[in-house]
Design goal:
Layout (H helix, E strand, L loop, with lengths): L4 H7 L6 H11 L7 H8 L3 H10 L5 H39 L2 H13 L2 E6 L2 H14 L4 E5 L2 H7 L8 E5 L6 H12 L3 E6 L12 E4 L5 H7 L4 H17 L1 H17 L1
Parallel strand pairs: 1-2, 1-3, 3-4, 4-5
Helix pairs in contact: 2-4, 3-4, 6-11, 7-11
C-alpha cells in the first residue's frame, strides 16, 4: 500500500481538513523529517492533529509514518545520485567524442563505404551489438553488411578477402587479441581495414587504414552503469549522418529503386 508514500498522501488530499493539508504539503515538499513536537511547533498546530493525519493514511501513529517517510527520502536520494552519475557519464562520453572528432577521417571512411557494396564488421560482446546497429542502418541504403561475432567465422572469411574488401574492426578498449588478429590478417590479404576504438595506443591502429577514435568509459561506467556499445554507436551515428549527407543522391536513388521494386511486386 505504501510503496509510493507520496502518491498515497496525494490520493487522500480531498479527505484532509485544512490543517491536514498543511501537514501533507510539508511532506510532499520532501522537507526534513522532524519529531512530532518539532513539526507541531514548526507548523503551529497540535501534535494530536499530526497523529490524526497519520491515522487517516492508515498508520497507527506518527512514529510508524515518519519511519517510512525517512526510507522514501533515502531511496529518492539514491535514485537521484544514480541518475546524476549516469547523466554525467553520458556528458563525459559526448565530450570525449567531440574531442576525438576528426572530420577528415570520417570523410575517408565514408568514401571507403561508398566504394564497397559488401562490408564485413567484426566485434565481440557489446562491440557486436554496435555492429548490428551499423548493419541495420547501412543495409537500409543498399549496402550488404555481414556481422561477425567470433574469430572462427573470421578465419572462414579470410580466404575470400582481397583488395576490394572492406572490414570494420570494432573494439572499444582495443585490447582484444581476436580483434587485433582479425585486423592483422585482413590487412595481410590487402583488405581496407577500419577500426573504431577508444584506445589511442591499441595495436589495431598499425593494421588499420583509418582509425576512428571514440569515447572511453571510465571505471564507474565500465562497471555496467552505461552500456559498452554506446561510444561505438555514437561513432556509427556520425559515420551514417555524414555518409547520408555526402552521398544523398546515391541514397535517394537507392530508395527510389527500392520503392519501384516494391510497387512492381
Amino acid at each position: 500500500m505504501y510503496r509510493d508514500l507520496f502518491l498515497v498522501i496525494k490520493s487522500y488530499r480531498f479527505k484532509f481538513t485544512n490543517v491536514e493539508k498543511l501537514i501533507a504539503d510539508y511532506f510532499l515538499k520532501k522537507k526534513e523529517p522532524l519529531t512530532i513536537d518539532e513539526l507541531a511547533k514548526k507548523l503551529f498546530i497540535s501534535p494530536a492533529s499530526i497523529t490524526r493525519f497519520c491515522k487517516k493514511l492508515g498508520f497507527n501513529n506518527y512514529k510508524e509514518f515518519i519511519y517510512l517517510y525517512k526510507e522514501k527520502l533515502n531511496s529518492i536520494e539514491i535514485e537521484s545520485a544514480t541518475f546524476n552519475n549516469i547523466q554525467q557519464g553520458y556528458l563525459n562520453i559526448l565530450k570525449d567524442v567531440d574531442e576525438n572528432f576528426d572530420r577528415e577521417v570520417l570523410i575517408n571512411v565514408c568514401e571507403a563505404i561508398h566504394k564497397k557494396k559488401i562490408i564485413h564488421l567484426f566485434g565481440l560482446g557489446s562491440s557486436g551489438l554496435a555492429a548490428d546497429d551499423f548493419k541495420f542502418r547501412f543495409s537500409r541504403i543498399g549496402k550488404f553488411i555481414e556481422v561477425i561475432k567470433d574469430y572462427n567465422s573470421v578465419r572462414m572469411l579470410m580466404p575470400i578477402l582481397n583488395k576490394s574488401s572492406l572490414i570494420f574492426i570494432l573494439s572499444l578498449r582495443g585490447k582484444s587479441e581476436d580483434a587485433i588478429l582479425a585486423a592483422k590478417n585482413a590487412k595481410a590479404k590487402g583488405a581496407t581495414v577500419i577500426s573504431i576504438t577508444s584506445n589511442h595506443k591499441s595495436e589495431l591502429i598499425k593494421y588499420s587504414d583509418h582509425t576512428i577514435y571514440t569515447a572511453k568509459l571510465d571505471k564507474v561506467d565500465a562497471m555496467g552503469n552505461i552500456s559498452g556499445q554506446i561510444p561505438l554507436v555514437i561513432s556509427i551515428d556520425l559515420i551514417y549522418s555524414l555518409y547520408v549527407d555526402k552521398y544523398k543522391n546515391a541514397v535517394k536513388k537507392w530508395f527510389n529503386t527500392e520503392k519501384a521494386i516494391n510497387k512492381s511486386k
